């Protein structure tokens, strides 16, 4: 009998694996439709779409393994990380999607609201919040929109040896800041930032990437807690915030 594995499940959406098929269930049918459109438009490897019957999208499993996991050292080679950087560059040079991503104003408002919650609830030390809010400021500048994946976690990039076989989970794709994708890919894996940049090429601002590391971690904590995840797990978001304190100003 083929087993059913819950890959990710929370109140907004869930992904199940049944043999070599992934079933993604999304309560927001418009978002799922945009994901299908983004996958079709992206000039990079994606999972084969088997069928789409809202609110479910069926995808074939990708060959290889994920580049890594947040909270665990990556076993992928340096060359695989370089290849991932090249794939991200190809995406960012594609035609920008017609639907907008988060605006700078919305991003600032979300960050300020989440920092206020963290301080009020005393979830993490005040110094951790205030220092990372300062670091995050580097990301809060106007950017030229490009085609971004929008949630380019290391677990969403699959590789086989030195080849990227596919990129998963395009639900947040749209027009956005290129540095945000690079920051998301390297979040918790700063030792591979140079490899990704080597594959990506010019135009990288390391201070902005570090700013996005802080911003993404600060804004993720409440959501993770409320959805049953642990941002304090070793190597995860709170450890990323702590590491930012050790980085020279």
TrEMBL record:
UniProt key word Transcription regulation: no
Organism superkingdom: Bacteria
One Pfam family it belongs to: APH
Domain Aminoglycoside phosphotransferase: 32-203
An example Gene Ontology molecular-function term: transferase activity
Keyword Transferase assigned: yes
Family annotation (InterPro entries): AGP_Transferase (IPR051678), Aminoglycoside_PTrfase (IPR002575), Kinase-like_dom_sf (IPR011009)
Keywords of the record: Transferase
Protein name according to UniProt: Aminoglycoside phosphotransferase
